[in-house]
From TrEMBL:
Entry keyword Cell membrane: yes
Name of the protein: Autoinducer 2 import system permease protein LsrD
PANTHER family: ABC TRANSPORTER PERMEASE PROTEIN YPHD-RELATED-RELATED, AUTOINDUCER 2 IMPORT SYSTEM PERMEASE PROTEIN LSRD
Keywords, comma-separated and alphabetical: Cell inner membrane, Cell membrane, Membrane, Transmembrane, Transmembrane helix, Transport
Residues spanning the membrane: 32-51, 57-78, 85-104, 110-135, 142-161, 181-201, 230-250, 262-279, 286-304, 310-332
Length: 352
């Protein structure tokens, strides 16, 4: 068997060197974030008044739903060593398109579809500039962040549209019957399953890790690196467009500056969830736990009377700590491998 030691030839196979399954599942950054999330929930339940109220869970999920949604495609993008800073401005643009459509007399579902299509087009613009023109995603999405936000504000000006059909605004605030869970959790779970299967159980997902680790090697192995990244940005734009429709109906407000700064919370949650900013590493369960951790911590601190400025500082510290810890652990692994190599070399020299 391949997992056994080849005693006849004195060789050990790759799987003989592998860690036990429990260690591969539990001793990871993702499991550490999930454990930290449970710790924060337990501490907040006993230390913060009203934190254990069902209403707290309801408002928490409603508030972080756009972050949960957009974090799914953002995870795939960062795994390939790219980034999309324009997602929040696409949310704002989608919000404006939804509002203008309803104001023009369009049925809300039609306005929502148009808004999602606009988000998809915006994502394809990012993807084309990054993959076909060859520009760095950081520079491209900083530019389109300003471009899409400027278009949104230019279309609506300083006014706001808040006259949306009551049925649809009530739907975004509705809970699953008999539970405190908002209805938005259903489309999120559907998308999470789709993205999870795509990333972790398909050749396409494995190609994303290969691109993040070494895009030249990935290209030589037959992966179409450019086209793969293009579709990731298209997915990001489409999901951001959908998040913009939800954002608009939840707050009954279409404005060009909706969701300003949301991209920083999304990226912080993704990196905190174990995705490497250098690409090639990460898993969706950790990202979802990272979003929930930031949302839970913010909710608990607000209930405890902490100001939003302090909450932003804490979120920033968590983000920096996650990046630094990832680099530190990578450095430790490198040193350990080098030490094992030196030890093996000395042993072979002494045997000779």
């Amino acid at each position: 068997m391949t997992s056994a030691i080849d005693t006849e030839h004195g060789r050990r196979t790759y799987s003989a060197y592998a860690h036990p399954l429990w260690r591969r599942l539990l001793v990871t950054r993702e499991s550490a974030i999930i454990g930290l999330l449970f710790l924060v929930v337990i501490v907040a339940t006993f230390a913060v008044p009203n934190f254990d109220s069902p209403l707290t869970l309801t408002f928490l999920i409603r508030e972080i739903a756009p972050i949960l949604l957009i974090a799914l495609p953002m995870t795939l993008i960062i795994i390939t060593e790219e980034i999309d800073l324009s997602v929040a401005s696409i949310v704002g643009l989608s919000s404006v398109i939804t509002g203008l459509g309803v104001q023009a007399g369009w049925p809300l579902p039609f306005a929502a579809v148009v808004a999602i299509l606009v988000g998809t087009v915006a994502g394809s613009i990012n993807g084309a500039l990054v993959t076909f023109v060859g520009l760095p995603s950081l520079a491209v999405t900083i530019g389109t962040l300003a471009l899409f936000r400027g278009i949104a504000v230019g279309l609506l000006g300083t006014t706001a549209i808040s006259d949306f059909p009551e049925f649809w605004t009530d739907l975004t605030r509705m809970n699953i019957p008999g539970t405190p869970m908002p209805l938005i959790i259903v489309p999120f779970l559907v998308l999470a399953i789709i993205f999870g299967v795509l990333l972790h159980f398909t050749p396409f997902g494995r190609s994303l890790y290969a691109i993040g680790l070494n895009k030249e090697a990935a290209a030589f192995s037959g992966i179409n690196v450019g086209l793969t990244k293009f579709w990731l940005f298209v997915m990001s734009g489409a999901v951001s467009g959908y998040a913009g429709v939800y954002f608009t109906l939840l707050y009954n407000n279409a404005r060009g500056d909706n969701a300003t700064g949301l991209e920083l919370q999304i990226i912080a949650a993704v990196l905190l969830g174990g995705v490497s900013i250098f690409g090639g590493r990460g898993a969706l369960p950790g990202v979802i736990a990272g979003v929930l951790l930031i949302g839970t911590l913010s909710s608990a601190l607000r209930l405890a009377g902490v100001t939003s400025d302090i909450i932003n500082v804490i979120t920033g510290v968590l983000l920096v700590a996650s990046v630094v810890s990832a680099s530190f652990l990578a450095w430790l692994r490198t040193k350990r491998v080098a030490a094992i190599g030196r030890k093996k070399g000395r042993a072979e020299a002494s045997d000779g």
